[in-house]
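quick one, 166 residues, struct below
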Amino acid sequence: MKPFLFVTDLDDTLVYRTVGDDSALPELNQLLSQHRQEYGTKIVYSTGRSPVLYKELQAQKNLLQPDALVLSVGTEIYLDGTDTPDSGWSEILSPGWERETVLSITKKYPELVRQPDSEQRPFKVSCFLEQEVSANVLPQLEAELQKSKLNVKLIYSSGIDLDIVP
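---
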């Protein structure tokens, strides 16, 4: 056997948020732990969750400690169990990212409702946006952000969550 890199999303992939069967998770954890010990396999979790929501899920589902975490819609990477985001990744995201400008632009749209503070991250502005109005708001918002020459990407998911990231 050789070491391998086990990379997985969490919600509705490795674990279920609502309906599903998490009964295979303890067996998978045991196999991964054994393979990690014997062969040096690395475990990476990738999720849109913030560090706060990830820690809640980790405790709730008894997830293995990963070797790396990709959190907050890919805007934060944590290595070897540290609580500090990888500075090299932050440097890559920084050029063209002006969080305060993004915030000031989003405040012009009453349809955008800021998500809780735990979901607001250095490289992520998160809002709720109802699906019924999203088709009108998203193109206008994107155009205004582009006019400001910002390095941003809009990620709209689940018919409600809008994340603006570098």
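The first strand starts at residue 5 and ends at 9.
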